[in-house]
Each structure stands twice: as structure tokens, then as C-alpha cells.
Design brief:
The complex is a heterodimer of chains A (about 40) and B (about 170). Chain A has about 40 residues and is an all-alpha fold. Chain A is built from 2 helices and no strands. In chain B, helix 3 runs parallel beside helix 8, helix 6 packs across helix 9 and helix 7 packs across helix 9. The chains are: A mainly alpha (about 40), B mainly alpha (about 170). The interface between A and B is medium-sized, with 27 and 37 residues.
Chain lengths: ~40, ~170
Amino acid sequence: MKYEEQIHKELSNLPKYSLEDKQKQRIMMNLIDKKHYKKKK
Amino acid sequence: MEKHSIENWFQDFESDVTNFLVYFTGTVEVEDLVQDTFYIALQKLSKYKEDSHPKTWLIAIARNLVIDRYRRNQVWERIKYYLTTEQSLKNDIENSLIKSFEYSLLSKAIQQLSPPYKEVVILRGIMEMSPKEVSTVLRCSQNKVNVIYHRALKKIKVKLEAEGFHYEV
């Protein structure tokens, strides 16, 4: 395997990140609030 | 019924935005940046053009947000230092989540790349976006993306070979 393919594969195997569920819920609540506030304005 | 729902986009693309921000800033503390990315997206939703995918649109917002914020707060020098110079393995990513030796060295090699190479490596390599998607985020041609990515892989190869790895040419 050529080095380009090998390193490309290694890069795609690096850990993928996501927020914790608690953080996601907090942002979702804030987004909904912000959206309602925007509509009222 | 609304055409685009920011809540749906948050559910669908939060992990893409978070992933980009973690590698771009070098820290896992990106909750505020993720939130602000979606706040800005909500404000600009009426300007969203459907010729770009929501994911690339959101990542472009996240990228600009980081650059603007660090510049405005005069912390840009800090992140530029972080993005352009060799760092010890004491950053958040390596400490908290990257466990294997190979991943640590690969991550270290990415951190050592200059910003244009690092951006393309994150988007094209780690996030597996197509050259077209990367060109949309970075507002450049697909050809430029391919050239930068090719050069970045070569730089990574040189760095990893210096650590004892061997790659076929």
C-alpha cells in the first residue's frame, strides 16, 4: 500500500469526538429558547 | 412548516462540528464553540444557500468562529503557536482520549503542521470529507485541496519516518 493510502487510512481511524448527552441537551434547550426569542422579536 | 430546522441540523451534524473543533483547536473543551456555531447558523439560516450541504456550511461557520474569536481576543497568537509549533504530548487530546502509541505520534505530527495543511488533513483525512466538500468549507478549488492534502501527507510521512515508521513509496 502506498504511503498516501496508508496515512489516509490511519487518519480516518483517529478517534471521532462528540459532546456528552448532557452537553447536547443543554445546547438543544438553549437553541430552542433562542429560536422562540427570535420569532417573538 | 419551516424548511430548515436548526434542531434537526444539531442532531444530525453536532458530532461533525464537535469533531472538527476538537482537532482544530486542540482541546476537547469545545461546548461553547459548538453552541455558538449553531447560534450563528440560526441567525443566518435565511441566507443559507441549498447548493452547499448543511454540514459543510456549519463547519465553515465553526472555522470562521474560531479564527475570529481568537483574533479578537488576542489569543490568536496562542493558538497560532499551538497550530504551528511542535508541542509536547501534554495537550487535552492526547491526555484524555488518544491512547495508542501510533495515534499519539500521528496526532503529534498533525499538530506540527502549519494551519493550511492541518485544516485540510482534519477535513479530508480525519473527517473523510470529499475534495468538493473541503473546497466549499475553505472556499478554494478542489485542485488546491488535493495538492495541499498530498503535500500534507508527505510531511506527515517524513515526521513519522523520523519516529521509526516505514512507508512504501
